[in-house]
Amino acid sequence: MQNMPENNKKKNVVFELFMKCVVVVVIYTVRVFLWLAYRPKVIFTGNSVKSSRLQNPAIIIANHSSMLDPLMMLAIFFHKRSIVVAKDQIEDPHFSWALTRAKCVIPCDRFNLDTEWALLAKRELEKGNSVIIFPEGKCRYDGLLNEFKTGFAFLARSTGVPVLSVALDGIYKFGHRTRVIVGEIEKIERVKGVPSSVHLTERSEYFRQKVWTYKLQALNLPYTELPPAEKTPAEEVPN
């Protein structure tokens, strides 16, 4: 009888190892599928970044108009990276079996005040891994951009790690090459203490406008002005 708990513990260890192997296989399979199905065309616009295999860690931000965007970003920036994912999605039984076992996932509670994700992201950056963040917090389907939450700017300013702006055209259909525009590496000056919320808001809007410019480029559209965040409230559409 005393051996039963021991046996159960061994079974659980074996099961977890098996599931982690399954998740690794799924990750590589999804990456191959995305490259074959949507043939992403990655365009580097500047001189500071010429490859998706970044030489130094960065905070990678991107627009969010499709549920496939996170998978595409992970497929492109495949080496030494983590991604911030909504905690409610991680807890969703449809995805939790994989997301809870994927080493690259950083959970973030988007409905409550959450600072733990920033600590986890800081550790990833210190380990030399880039961190992928979607500052809008959720998908937007009308072609505009939601307000950029300031968490990425706070992380960049407090750690001194640069920000890399990326735009996805958000079109995932057979026969279309998904276009991805990668911008320049930019730093937000590092300061001691708590950064000013006003400055963080200004920096977030600056990068929102930059990602908007790249998004239009990804869509092969002429430049049109993006109204400020307060004039483009979030859609009332569930994720």
In words, what does this structure look like?
- With 239 residues, this protein is of the alpha/beta class.
- It has one domain: 3-Layer(aba) Sandwich (Glycerol-3-phosphate (1)-acyltransferase).
- The protein contains seven helices and seven strands; from the N terminus they run αββαβααβαβαββα.
- The model has no long low-confidence stretch (mean pLDDT 91).
Layout: helices, strands, pairs:
Elements: H1 3-38, E1 41-44, E2 59-62, H2 69-76, E3 81-86, H3 87-90, H4 96-99, E4 105-108, H5 116-126, E5 130-133, H6 151-159, E6 163-168, E7 179-186, H7 197-218
Parallel strand pairs: 1-7, 2-5, 2-6, 3-4, 3-5
Antiparallel strand pairs: 6-7
Helix pairs in contact: 1-2
Write a brief caption for the model.
The chain is of the alpha/beta class and 239 residues long. It has 7 helices and 7 strands; from the N terminus they run H-E-E-H-E-H-H-E-H-E-H-E-E-H. Helices cover 39% and strands 15% of the residues.
CATH topology value: Glycerol-3-phosphate (1)-acyltransferase
Look at the helices and sheets and give the structural class.
Answer: alpha/beta
Shape: globular
Elements, N to C (H/E): HEEHEHHEHEHEEH
The Cα radius of gyration reads: 19 Å
What ranges have pLDDT less than 50 throughout 5 or more consecutive residues?
Answer: none
* Total number of domains: 1
Distance between the termini: 49 Å
Question: What is the average of the pLDDT values?
Answer: 91
**CATH-scheme architecture:** 3-Layer(aba) Sandwich
* Strand order within the widest beta sheet: 1-7-6-2-5-3-4
Helical proportion? 25-40%
Main sheet characteristics: 7 strands, mixed
The tally of beta strands, per DSSP, is 7
What is the tally of helical segments? 7
